[in-house]
């Protein structure tokens, strides 16, 4: 689960219809220590249940690398600075939620290396005009570049001289094909529903995929 400080900046991603990429995204990255995968998974499932039960003020998406050293990325889109401030206030004012998430952070100590985070701005001049979608997306192909250049996908620029190229994919084979032509610095990530807090619109549009999410289970309760 993202640390409380990072959670305060989470913002809603666009819903599920194809639409222009968001103006900016927040990417929080964790690298797991060897042998920590099982316990990390249990912690993240608990964190998602907490967020569903105590009403985290914003959806978030968990992505896990499918090969190589295990990484988990938390991907969130910003509609505006005002929205980001709204979410920050939502976490700060929910005392029970804040305390529960601090306990999640404590439980994750020793499971991951030092995390990294980036607030990245969309660069339409470097992007290929790809839409940003959730419906049917199961994987993301993400390339980290150390220089600005035109790319096939949605390009976001971070202030630490990094550029992220983000491309959605419906299947693992499609993701692998896209990754094969994307160049160095590319990784394939699978969406992890059980660790995510999907928006109601995502669940309504893709209920079978999101049924493992605690948010989907809580939505069914009267």
Q: What is the number of helical segments per DSSP (H or I, 4+ residues)?
A: 8
Distance between the termini: 27 Å
Biggest sheet statistics: 8 strands, antiparallel, barrel
Low-confidence stretches: 1-16
Beta-strand residue fraction: 15-25%
The level of helicity is 25-40%
What name does CATH use for the topology? Answer: Alpha-Beta Plaits
Q: Could you say which overall geometry the principal axes of the C-alpha atoms support?
A: globular
Task: Tell me the strand order in the biggest sheet.
Answer: 1-3-2-8-5-7-6-4
The CATH architecture assignment turns out to be: 2-Layer Sandwich
Query: Any idea how many domains?
Result: 1
**What's the total number of strands?**
8
Alpha-beta classification: alpha+beta
Determine and state the CATH class.
Alpha Beta
What's the helix-strand series?
HEHEEHHEEEEHEHHH
Gyration radius (Cα, Å) is 17 Å
The overall average pLDDT, rounded, is 87
